[in-house]
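Our consortium's second objective concerns turning raw sequence data into structural hypotheses that experimental partners can test. To show how far this objective has progressed, the report includes one record in full. It was chosen at random from the queue rather than selected for favorable results. The single chain below, 621 residues long, was entered without modification.
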Amino acid sequence: MTDKTLRLTTAQAIIKYLSNQYIEVDGHELRLCGGGFGIFGHGNVTCLGEALFDAREALPLYRGQNEQSMGFAAAGYAKQWLRQRFMFCTASAGPGTTNLLTSAALAHANRLPMLMLCGDTFLTRLPDPVLQQLEHFNNPALGVNDAFKAVTRYWDRITHPAQVIQSLPAALAMMLDPADCGPAFIGLPQDVQGWAYDYPERFFEKHVHRIRRQSPDPLEITQAAALLGAAKRPMIIAGGGVQYSGAVAELTAFAEAHNIPVVETIAGRANLVQNHPLNIGPLGVTGSDSANAIAAQADVILAVGTRLQDFTTGSWTAFAKDAAIIGMNVGRHDAVKHLSLPVVGDARCSLTALSGAMGDYQAPAPWTQAAQAERVKWVAYTDAITAVGSGPNSYAQAIRAVNDLCDPRDRVVAAAGGLPAEVTAHWQTKDIGTVDVEFGFSCMGYEIAGGWGARIAQFEREPDQDTIIFIGDGSYMMLNSDIYSSVLSDRKLIICLLDNGGFAVINKLQNNTGNESFNNLIADCPTVPHPFGVDFHAHAAAMGANAETVSNAAELGEAFKRAKAADKTTVILMNVDAYEGWTTQGHTWWEVGTPHVTDNPKVAEKHTEIEAERAKQRKGI
């Protein structure tokens, strides 16, 4: 023990502490924090900026173009690293910080670690009201930073330099906790950032962290083994938690040992490769006929590492009402959903323990063979709909053209609109953990920013591979500035921009509920007297990217080859049909609100049709 101290400002102490936190990944010792994304303003440049400058080698700072996109990039980075490493985001007080709210919500919904270090108003209040301060007349301590309490797992405002000693370790412990992982927010009043304190030297010593592996309760394993071991039609749902646990090998071994069919969630895509005989396909609203067919018949369902979101469960109509669910999850909240039999623990430990408890049990061969037969039919359908020239230009054709030519370790990124469904349905996984479809928050604008963050992470381990982004024109228009970031930072992306003239998938939902096209496609906006399209080719080129416009999926494939060979970001533009070419199969029911009273007979008819499916819905059990 030593009483030696270092006199540092609050900001300097934060950065020095982060610089000395490490984690071991695959036998390599790495900094836990890979760096950060920052946009400076008066609220963070003078003090935090000063500290970051001195640490610029240890914690590289990427200049952002938009605070929201910085948060998306941090989420993409953490996801690529399977939550083993994180990035921080720093923004000035006021609108710079509030721009991070949406990305904090995305990280929260997806259970991803991200640290936000944001400016705050002066603790002394002597200069109040200050630039960009939001005044609450009856509560002077309340400010815009308090809004982050709803979208973070950890929130603090540093009101004295000594608080850093407690706050930072607590934030990191949360971000490394498999059950409680999410974004952390630390508000830094502008005066407090520069205040000095005599910090214990030991606080800044190198520390190597590890991520806890929680063993399951033996009684829960015994109960789960008894239930699953008596199943006649068992099924495994493999979620994103399988990959975060590093349990893909254990999942595969478990399924093979017990001959149980496996279906994947959206977050769990790429848990199994395409041609694995027990891979029956993606499940749910944006799933496959094969997975949905066996889900409807399964008598016992082992749900591993999944939140059981509505797109997975078909708003809880995908399963038989008397099917039993075993919730295997490191998070108690997820393990007990819909009265599941819980197995609370790490997926790798739990699968190994459960397999041992089940002995030589195997699912009946006719059941597994029937599931595999369903899979064969689904693959035939996807092969047909994705074939070049099978109809008007479509998402499905573009996806297949790229899928056929990509390297096994290339990473594909998609998020909102119609592309998540199409990628989930048609992407043929060549290697484990290579798909990022952000559908936890389904946030338009994540694609390019999140892809940039993923590429930064990918470059640290697999620099010769590519990050491939599928994005529609609607999402592109919302957030595209990190094309420029990718070129500036020399982190190449391949962006497939598929233009259908607006928000076509919501137009489809609008039509499918009996409504007329209205305010989704540019051509259907009543306030647009002369519709026209954006010159995306010129726009992408203006941000320094290579740009190509192609006429069909065959030309897209050739352009993709050139993009692979290029040394900087390429944007490939192809127009797709807004009405034809959608994947019409593989969908369960999805609960959306429809008018109970309307003068429109088509809307009334669709309301009756949609409500009729509610009879299949499990009501909380």
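The partners drew two points from this record. The longest strand covers residues 114-120. The two ends are 55 Å apart (CA to CA). Both points have been shared with the crystallography group to help prioritize constructs.
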